[in-house]
């Protein structure tokens, strides 16, 4: 841009306010006119020291040009000292004398320049600029020093500075928190001169000498008798270098670690106590990290699995278990870290010519911030239980086989009996005889229904509950013509016995048989605080109020009296309840409540 190449058109002294203190009116006027012509803002000149102090304090000029010889008792040097005490205004001395006595006196003061009259204009403007620049640097330096001094003085760590003779050059106020001494008590003295214990003085002096020699930081620990008893200190020594690269002084930072030491001691006691409890426990206890690797196992754990404790440390479940069980174990560990919930699982552990079964419980272990850092596990030998379960399965299999054979034989005989009854109904015509034959037929059919119920009830609980899509449990093709099925269900799964489909089959059968011309059935569900409520309702005649509690009892009803009883039993296998809440005359309404944890959204 063109303007960037143009010289600054502002006057030299633009924005700078100057006070002239000069007893010679002609010189004062000359300085005033010259500086004003250069763009400086000039306050009315003064001729005495007292006036200079008064105007400087009142008008706050940026700089004072001070003649050493002024009218009155106060010299220019006295006035400059007073101004420096009361304000932060730089002073340039003006004098017609250049003798050594004046120069030495001026050097002692906080002066920013010294000019011999008559003053050359170039020398004057240069002196003013340099004085303002130096004053700005001094101000920034003081501010920086004040900030760091405040930081050091308010720091809870004890900060000291030492010279090569082990003397204290600086000590902050934190020292008074652990010793009955003030910082000033240390300055210029060594620890020995202050009467500290000989062994500590040896340690401190050796440490200081080490840093002076090696030019490297040094860290050590020590303890001593402080204001509040034994005090533990972490002591860091840092070399401070001079311009020639040598170590000029040593800065030390002492941190009171007493509380941490006490906590560590308590932690060691606590660890020892709990380790004893864990080792003496009758349960197998272990810890694993997020990778599934064992970090600790107690003696019971090791003896149960037949190896010494150190055998397991660092190994994972994949190193110890069959692949299927190891995968299951690893998934459970990941789930604990992800959800923060306790997980249980059953795993096999092959030993020699047999397989042992264990029930594992995995609990999350959280740190002070609530993050899961590991898992504390318990192991229980369930081999005998598994053997008993396997033996029970074999017994049940035999009983089921016997029952199936018996049912088959009885069903065949009932079929034959019904055949004979049908023949008797054709052969006999006497009404009294036919009445008995009809009763006999009714009993035979009831026996056949009982046999069918026994077949279904025998299957109940023989297989593990499963997650099942609620919509797929509803009857589809079984809906007869003339009945409209309306379904309003989310994509949800319920944890139920594999026979759950029979529940809805029985509800449909109940509506068709006893609903009284049902034309509409609606199935819906909604979530409540207690769980998921599934509703099956129709537009039939409903259930009389006095029968609502009885319809789920075995043998109650107009047909076999077993359908709704079986439905309740199937649902009850996983804690699902069912009740009839419809209004008589307006249709039946069955509410099934699935408890929390037994339903989930698909996907």
Number-wise, the strands total 23
Distance between the termini: 65 Å
CATH architecture of the largest domain: 3-Layer(aba) Sandwich
Total tally of structural domains: 5
What best-fitting shape do the alpha-carbon axes yield? elongated
- Helicity level, as a percent range? 40-55%
Average pLDDT, to the nearest integer? 83
Q: Which structural class do you get from the secondary structure elements?
A: alpha+beta
Strands of the widest sheet, in order across it, are 2-1-3-4-5
Radius of gyration: 50 Å
* Major sheet attributes: 5 strands, parallel
Sheet-strand content, in percent, reads 15-25%
Q: Would you identify the regions where 5 or more consecutive residues have pLDDT less than 50?
A: 1-10
CATH topology of the largest domain: Rossmann fold
| Tally of DSSP helical segments | 15
CATH superfamily of the largest domain: Response regulator
Give the class-level CATH name of the largest domain. Alpha Beta
Task: Give an account of the 3D structure.
The structure is a single chain. The protein is α+β, with helices and mostly antiparallel strands and about 600 residues long. It folds into five domains: about 10-150, Rossmann fold; about 155-260, PAS domain (Beta-Lactamase, 2-Layer Sandwich); about 280-380, PAS domain (Beta-Lactamase, 2-Layer Sandwich), CATH 3.30.450.20; about 385-460; about 465-600, Histidine kinase-like ATPase, C-terminal domain (Heat Shock Protein 90). It has 15 helices and 23 strands. The strands form five sheets. The protein has a five-stranded parallel sheet, sandwiched between helices. The protein has a five-stranded antiparallel sheet with strand order 7-6-10-9-8, with helices on both faces. α2 runs parallel beside α3 (about 75-85), α12 (about 385-425) runs antiparallel to α13 and α14 runs antiparallel to α15 (about 565-570).
């Amino acid at each position: 841009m063109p303007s960037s190449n143009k010289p600054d058109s502002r006057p030299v002294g633009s924005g700078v306010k100057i006070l002239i203190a000069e007893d010679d009116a002609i010189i004062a006027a000359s300085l005033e006119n010259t500086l004003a012509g250069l763009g400086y803002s000039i306050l009315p000149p003064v001729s005495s020291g007292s006036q200079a102090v008064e105007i400087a304090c009142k008008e706050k000029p940026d700089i004072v040009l001070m003649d050493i010889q002024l009218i009155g008792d106060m010299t220019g040097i006295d006035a400059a000292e007073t101004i420096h005490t009361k304000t932060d205004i730089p002073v340039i001395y003006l004098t017609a004398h250049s003798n050594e006595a004046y120069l030495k006196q001026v050097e002692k003061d906080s002066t920013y320049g010294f000019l011999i009259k008559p003053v050359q204009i170039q020398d004057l403007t240069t002196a003013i600029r340099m004085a303002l620049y130096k004053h700005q640097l001094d101000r920034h330096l003081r501010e920086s020093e004040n900030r760091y001094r405040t930081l050091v003085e308010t720091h809870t760590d004890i900060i000291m500075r030492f010279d090569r003779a082990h003397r204290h050059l600086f000590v902050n106020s934190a020292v008074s928190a652990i010793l009955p001494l003030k910082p000033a008590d240390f300055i210029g003295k060594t620890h020995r001169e202050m009467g500290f214990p000989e062994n500590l003085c040896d340690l401190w002096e050796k440490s200081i000498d080490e840093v002076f020699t090696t030019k490297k930081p040094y860290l050590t620990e020590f303890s001593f008798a402080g204001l509040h008893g034994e005090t533990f200190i972490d002591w860091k020594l840092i070399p401070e270098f001079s311009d020639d690269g040598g170590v000029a002084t040593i800065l030390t930072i002492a941190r009171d670690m007493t509380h941490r030491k006490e906590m560590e001691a308590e932690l060691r006691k606590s660890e020892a106590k709990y380790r004893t409890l864990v080792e003496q426990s009758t349960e197998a206890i272990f810890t694993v990290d997020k990778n599934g690797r064992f970090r600790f196992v107690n003696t019971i754990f090791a003896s149960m699995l037949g190896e010494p404790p150190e055998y397991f440390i660092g190994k994972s479940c994949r190193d110890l278990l069959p692949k299927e069980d190891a995968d299951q174990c690893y998934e459970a560990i990941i789930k604990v870290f992800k959800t923060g919930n306790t997980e249980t699982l059953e795993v096999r552990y092959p030993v020699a010519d047999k397989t042992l079964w264990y029930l594992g419980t995995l609990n999350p272990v959280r740190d002070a911030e609530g993050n899961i850092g590991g898992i504390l596990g318990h192991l229980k030998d369930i081999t005998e239980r598994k053997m008993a379960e396997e033996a029970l399965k074999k017994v049940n299999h035999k009983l089921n086989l016997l029952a199936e054979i018996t049912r088959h034989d009885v069903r065949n005989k009932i079929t034959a009996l019904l055949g004979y009854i049908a023949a008797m109904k054709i052969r006999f015509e006497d009404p009294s005889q036919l009445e008995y034959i009809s009763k006999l037929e009714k009993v035979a059919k009831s026996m056949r229904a009982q046999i069918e119920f026994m077949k279904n009830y025998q299957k109940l609980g023989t297989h593990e509950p499963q997650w099942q899509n609620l919509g797929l449990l509803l009857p589809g093709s079984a809906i007869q013509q003339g009945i409209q099925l309306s379904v309003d269900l989310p994509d949800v799964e319920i944890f139920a016995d594999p026979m759950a489909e029979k529940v809805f089959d029985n509800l449909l059968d109940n509506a068709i048989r006893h609903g009284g011309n049902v034309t509409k059935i609606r199935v819906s569900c909604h979530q409540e605080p207690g769980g998921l409520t599934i509703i099956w309702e129709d537009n039939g005649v409903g259930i009389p109020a006095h029968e609502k509690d009885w319809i789920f009892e075995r043998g109650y009803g107009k047909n076999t009296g077993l359908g709704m009883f079986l439905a309740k039993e199937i649902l009850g296998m996983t804690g699902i309840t069912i009740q009839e809440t419809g209004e008589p005359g307006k249709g039946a309404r069955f509410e099934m409540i699935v408890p929390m944890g037994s339903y989930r959204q698909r996907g």
